Amino acid sequence: MFHVAIIGCGGIAQVHAAVLHNLPDTELIACADIRPERAEAMAQKFGCRAYDSMDALLDAERPDSVHLCTPHYLHAPMAQKAARRGIAVFSEKPPVISREQWAMLEDAASRVPLGICFQNRYNPNAREAKRLIDEKVYGELLGARAFVTWKRELPYYRDSGWRGAWATEGGGVLINQSVHTLDLLVQLMGPPDTVEAHMANHHLKGGIEVEDTVEAYLVLGGRPALFYATTAYTQDAPVMIELHCERATLRLESDALEIRTQDGTERKTFRTDAALGKGYWGTGHTACIADFYDSIQNNRPFQNDLASVRGTADAMLRMYEEGRKTL
Ligand SMILES: NC(=O)c1ccc[n+]([C@@H]2O[C@H](COP(=O)([O-])OP(=O)(O)OC[C@H]3O[C@@H](n4cnc5c(N)ncnc54)[C@H](O)[C@@H]3O)[C@@H](O)[C@H]2O)c1
User: Which residues of 69-85 are buried (b: 16+ CB within 10 A; e: fewer)?
Assistant: First the structure.
């Protein structure tokens, strides 16, 4: 049985707690939040102990692992703190907000098992697309395009206490909402060769520091990928990723995979479990967290280990290095 603690008891932590509660080999023993009422509420709901800081929790408890569900800027330092005590780390995305933080995570990962929650890699349609690309079922992959067009208004940023600021969120639509899509592109295509990016703040100008829109021309694994993400739309439209192969175009949208060939279109839909949280968080948390603990139990590499997110983190940081010039 893994004894687990959750740090940060806000929105996504509720999904982690529910998954840990449902898995047979994990027990949530404690949680911490600087807003103590949030930790208390989680403790009451899931029958664990509540603390008002990570330090207080670590001084009193001996968890086998911590789940980091805190704001972006805290992931790497908290991972390092836990790892130095020999505690395994499962961190929400993004892994880092800067290159300095990457070194902290490398230090942490050299000491303990460390996983990053890019749960969409576990989506059945993404796995099937990866198999088709890796096995070259429709020939070579030539290029890709991806669109994330969602809606986020000022209260979403203002009320959180950490979103919308470079120091605490590390960026906007790229690092927060569309980093999952960037990660899938890197998984499907390969790490970044070149990165060109422009960023803008359209509908929340003056309200937030960070970008609400990013467009990029990336070369990933030697092939071009066109990337567009915004939170200035009027609804959370399904994310679209299109992969252009020699003999087919594959399109990922919601839980479907469409394969368009000269002979016609095949549409595969995959059964997915009901989302534990908001629909746009997807349904991959259970599979991702279960796989993390299974990998530790069976002493095998974890699919979402630090090495596996290096390309995504590098592409993202390079997009900010370029894109901030145009903001
Ligand atoms: N994988 C996904 O699909 C997904 C979905 C949503 C959020 N997330 C990620 O999860 C993280 C949290 O997002 P959220 O939407 O739950 O945010 P949130 O603001 O709802 O929750 C964050 C919590 O952390 C607490 N906190 C802040 N500083 C702390 C500290 N020093 N010690 C302990 N607790 C502290 C806050 O009080 C808050 O309760 C972010 O990194 C976000 O990107 C991932």
Answer: bbbbbbbbbbbbbbbee
Which among 153, 154, 133 has a CA at the least distance from the CA of 143?
A: 133
To the question of pTM greater than 0.85 for the whole model, the response is yes
Of ligand 1's atoms, which has the minimum distance to the CA of residue 161? 19
**Per-residue model confidence as pLDDT tens digits over 154-169:** 999 999 999 999 999 9
Of 117, 136, 162, which closes a domain? 117
Mean of the per-residue pLDDT values of the chain: 95
> What's the CATH number where 187 sits?
3.30.360.10
| 2-7/65-68 β-pairing | parallel
DSSP class of residue 66? Answer: E
Q: Which of 92, 105, 123, 176 to mutate to test the pocket of ligand 1 (most atoms within 8 A of CB)?
A: 92
- Is pLDDT of 132 > 90? yes
pLDDT tens digits for 30-53?
999 999 999 999 999 999 999 999
Residue 205 is given by DSSP the state B
For residue 13, give the ligand 1 atom closest to its CA: 16
